[in-house]
Amino acid sequence: MAGEAxxxxxxxxxxxxxxxxxxxxxxxxxxxxxxNEPVGTVRTCWSFELPVAKSTLSHHFKVLRExxxxxxxxxxxxxxxxxxxxxxxxxxxxxxxxxxxDRV
Length: 104
What we know:
alpha+beta
């Protein structure tokens, strides 16, 4: 959407921001759910069925995008996300395996 900060490039990915994003159980669930899908799966934000208000849901996906964990796809009337698995695996090998095993 207009006015949003762009997601970080692979070189700009910051482990501290990623850890901060993953510290929240709802955001960790989103990443874990995406890890259990085929690589490149695109899902709507509502498909995760998080028990939070719409404004809180928007905040969670903003944090995930700004940390570099997901890419956001704006489709006008809805937004979809995709996990940046290949980039994250290249920059921080083993990190996503910890999330998938729920050891974060």
